[in-house]
């Protein structure tokens, strides 16, 4: 496969740059949503906000349309990303003292000095949990 037409190589190089930018943009987005999740868990707000999601989807569908991107694809993409964010927020809520109340229950008062919970795509590090081995 050494005979790659120059145009194909140029286009692939551009695609590689765009993919790298997407990864960086997503990483920045998850850093911001992580902080939102910590904040919401601390004050007892629920992990998901369907009204906000509805506004985001409508806005992104409009932007996609203007940009020549399939709005249905844009909606699927943002819905996929938001589902992952909510998963992280649920994990945070389950370990925060101000975790979202269950129906009919008042929110617990958050401890003012509660440390932020580190959440990556891997397992959640529970404060005071089992220390790592090694
Ligand atoms: C980030 C938030 O939490 C959730 C995730 C959202 C997102 O990833 O954009 C939007 C709404 C919420 O369901 C938020 O409430 O702003």
UniProtKB/TrEMBL annotation:
Please, which domain of life does this record's source organism belong to? Bacteria
Q: Where is the composition biased (Low complexity)?
A: 96-128
Which InterPro entries does this one have?
Chorismate_II_sf, Chorismate_mutase-related, CM_bact, CM_dom_sf, CM_II_prokaryot
The UniProt keyword set, sorted, is: Isomerase
Q: Which SMART domains match?
A: CM_2
Location of the Chorismate mutase domain? 2-93
Q: Where is this region: Disordered?
A: 96-134
Q: What is this protein identified as?
A: Chorismate mutase domain-containing protein
Q: Provide the organism lineage as a comma list.
A: Bacteria, Bacillati, Actinomycetota, Actinomycetes, Micrococcales
């Amino acid at each position: 496969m050494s005979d790659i037409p120059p145009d194909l190589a140029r286009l692939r190089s551009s695609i590689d740059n765009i993919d790298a930018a997407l990864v960086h943009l997503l990483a920045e987005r998850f850093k911001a949503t992580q902080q939102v999740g910590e904040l919401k868990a601390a004050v007892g707000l629920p992990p998901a906000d369907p009204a906000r999601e509805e506004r985001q989807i409508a806005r992104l569908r409009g932007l996609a349309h203007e940009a020549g991107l399939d709005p249905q694809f844009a909606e699927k993409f943002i819905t996929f990303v938001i589902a992952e964010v909510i998963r992280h927020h649920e994990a945070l809520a389950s370990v925060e003292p101000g975790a979202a109340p269950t129906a009919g229950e008042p929110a617990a008062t958050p401890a003012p000095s509660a440390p932020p919970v580190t959440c990556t795509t891997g397992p959640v590090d529970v404060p005071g949990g089992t220390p790592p081995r090694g």
